[in-house]
Amino acid sequence: MRRFDEFKFFGLPLLAGLSRKTMIGQMLGGRDIGERMVGSVTGAIMAVQNGANIVRVHDVLEMKDALMVLNKVG
C-alpha cells in the first residue's frame, strides 16, 4: 500500500475508500462482495497506519471495533 505522506503537503485530511472494492475481492481470490469484510477492514487499518485520516466503510461497527483495538494495542 502506498504511504499517504506524499499527499500531506496539501494540508487536508486524507480519505481512503477501500470497502468491498473489486480489488479486495481479487486479492482474496475472486470473492463476492458479501465475502470481503475482513479484507476491507484490513485494508482500512493499513490505510490508517499509513496516514489516512478518514476511512469510508460499509461495515461501520466492525471497523469501529478494529480501530478501537488498534488504538489500544498500537
Write the layout of secondary structure elements.
Blueprint lengths: L14 E2 L5 H6 L9 H13 L4 E2 L4 H14 L1
Parallel strand pairs: 1-2
Question: Would you give an account of this structure?
Answer:
This protein is mostly helical. Helix content is 45%, strand content 5%. The chain contains 3 helices and 2 strands, in the order βααβα. The chain has a two-stranded parallel ribbon with strand order 1-2. α2 crosses α3. The mean pLDDT is 92.
Provide a brief overview of the structure:
The protein has 74 residues and is mainly α.
The strands making up the biggest β-sheet line up spatially as 1-2
Continuous helix count: 3
Structural class: mainly alpha
> Helical proportion?
40-55%
| Overall number of domains | 1
- Counted beta strands: 2
Distance between the termini: 19 Å
Shape: globular
Approximately how much beta-strand content do the residues carry? 5-15%
Labels describing this entry:
74 residues; mainly alpha; two-stranded parallel ribbon; globular
